Amino acid sequence: MADPRPDPSPRNRAVRTAGEGAAFSPLYRQIKELLVQSLERGEWKPGELIPSEIDLASRFQVSQGTVRKAVDELAAEHLLLRRQGKGTFVATHHEARVRYRFLRLATDEETEGGRAESRILECRRLRAPVEIARALELRAGETVVMIRRLLSMNHRPTVLDEIWLPGSIFRGLTLELLAANKAPLYGLFETEFGVSMVRADEKLRAVAAPADAADLLGVGPGVPLLQVERVSYTYGDRPVEVRRGLYLTDRYHYRNSLN
């Protein structure tokens, strides 16, 4: 005999689905995952205001406190930004507080690293080297976009970046587009390609400056540099960037906070 009770609402089914196979997952973590799914689908775009905690609590049929705890975690992870008296917004790399959060340089006087100026040296499409394809979870030989750029701090060359992006996602990314861009690079990726960088893993090591890098950075070959290898991820823990940076640290240090 058919069950005469009405089918649960989509909102209740959504919470139940998020909890399937995760019996010990706190309810606020389930709500957090649903919010991330909405961000990934583009329901709320970078820079946009998300619904209030009261509206989200009604949507998911949970308490406002549960929603607040989920939003607090997403704000701590820089996926959302709270603005006093205005509400909660989707984080964007156009926002001053988020713009340089992956650039961890500071001067030796413990102040911010200063204004960063970017100069694109190269942008071309090619078949992915094996190690890049592996890091981006691409098939061998898939197309990638490779960018080289020089980042200057306070008008002094400081970072030489080599950036690798999946070609299928970044169709239309050209040297001309990059040269004309006045926004942060990750801001351009958001606006033009719908890709938000939400977290990154990094490896650091000391290296001797190769001759070509030394010339661009204005130092002698063999000068000690800090090499930073980064894999950046968008929603769903999908890798969308490999970045290898050579950092000149005679006036700057690499700063991080460990919790």
| Oligomer kind | single chain
- What order do the SSEs take from the amino end to the carboxyl end, as H and E? HHHHEEHEEHEEHHEHEEE
Rough outline: globular
**Cα gyration radius (Å):** 22 Å
Number of strands: 10
Q: Helicity range of the residues?
A: 25-40%
Strand proportion, as a percent range, falls in 25-35%
Poorly predicted residue ranges: 1-14, 16-22
How far from one another are the termini? 56 Å
Described by strand count, sense and barrel closure, the largest sheet is:
6 strands, antiparallel
Topology (elements, then pairings):
Elements: H1 10-19, H2 27-41, H3 53-60, H4 64-76, E1 80-83, E2 87-90, H5 96-99, E3 105-107, E4 116-127, H6 130-135, E5 143-153, E6 156-166, H7 175-180, H8 185-193, E7 199-208, H9 211-217, E8 224-234, E9 238-247, E10 252-254
Antiparallel strand pairs: 1-2, 3-10, 4-5, 5-6, 6-9, 7-8, 8-9
